[in-house]
Amino acid sequence: MTATLVKEASPPAPLHPDRARRRRLRRRGRIVAVLFVLPALLLLGALVVYPVLFSVGRSLFDASGTRFVGGENYTEMFRDPATLKAVRNTAIWVVIAPTLLTGLGLILAVLVEKVRWATAFKLLLFMPMAVSFLAAGIIFRLAYDDDPDKGVLNAAAVTVHDAFKGSSSYPTARAREAVGGGGGGAGPGLTKEADGAYTTGADLSPGTVTALGLVGVAPKDLPDDAAPAHPAATRQEAGADEVRGVVYLDFTPGGGGEPGVVDRQESGLPGMTVEAVRDGRTVASTTTAADGSFRFTGLDGGSYAVKLPAANFAPPYDGISWLGPTLVTPAIIGSYLWIWTGFAMVLIGAGLSALPRDALEAARMDGANEWQIFRRITVPLLAPVLTVVFVTLVINVMKVFDLVYIIAPGPVQEDATVLATQMWLVSFGGGNDQGMGSALGVLLLLLVVPAMVFNVRRFRRSQR
Fold this sequence. Notes:
By secondary structure, the chain is of the alpha+beta class. It has a five-stranded antiparallel sheet with strand order 2-3-9-6-7, with no helix packed on it. Strands 1-4-5-8 form a four-stranded mixed sheet, with no helix packed on it. A hairpin with a 2-residue loop joins strand 6 and strand 7. It is elongated, with a radius of gyration of 39 Å.
């Protein structure tokens, strides 16, 4: 007989007291950790996750939010010229701003190491980071103002321009219409040419004295050295090979003067360029004296015309239109560089301070100069830091909004728009199409996420 032995199931081994205690402590630790993390998770969900999900859902509806349109907002988005311009401007920002900032930060970080007051210099460059984008936008909006009396950049541009190329002293001057006369103080009529110059309508021969009256110049705008024109107009006598004359302000302060006649209280216009023209060609040129008098000598016989070139009446140089359609994006990028250069310098400087000094000293002992050390040792060793700074700035410029919205004037807002400002303008700035605005927000998120993932992975690898 075959006996089947049924073994009784043995009871589980008792848990070791220390192991049981560790298990309870781990369970309690997880609960405590969840309790500590829960407020942050709730806040993250309320401020990040929910808005993202809501924006994705809202982008699938029309402007009113009542009709489901699917991907229509996304297709319309890439047919809209304003959105395409925003994408183009964002691409310009992404390429130019991080590249310039990383390069400037690297150069400044290397140079600051050789400066005696390095800490003060770093503090000075980092101070703009303490200024809000709103305040920085207002500052640069004023700095870029077209009026040289307000905009510091145009004030500097005008100063430099006028130092090398003087501007006209009589931009508002013009000839009095329908005034004629002969010699002895009554000048011939002046005809305005297409280029803005004035030419005598009558022919003048050597031995003639003429007077050219202009109006439109306020007495307070006359040069300090301006003298009365009457003596020069009445006492001049021209030689056989000369043409003499006077250019004067045909206006008597307080009234009572006679148009076309040089009265005693009327002032000459000094510094005015005058040309003698014959057969359409300039044969002589001179500048009026303090009393407005001028003289051409050595003229051949024949008839001449006297010309006041357009340069005498050119409007003053007003500087550069920084916020015009052409330069508005580079101008805003310039203000962004002012704010973030210190940030890039400090981060790269921290990486520079961690470089192995023995490699640099060995290169110097081998005869390498500073440029070779910088190009072949410093930059390759700093490559991880430079990459992190560059990618961080790429993420930041994709979201730039404040500077563009504040600095760009209304007429050129569309020329300077980026994705963030376009999203706001479409949703709240007059478009009132939150479906399209949500689609732009989703597009912006999709562009930012890859850069963020790259940065996080790079950071984790560096931690290992």
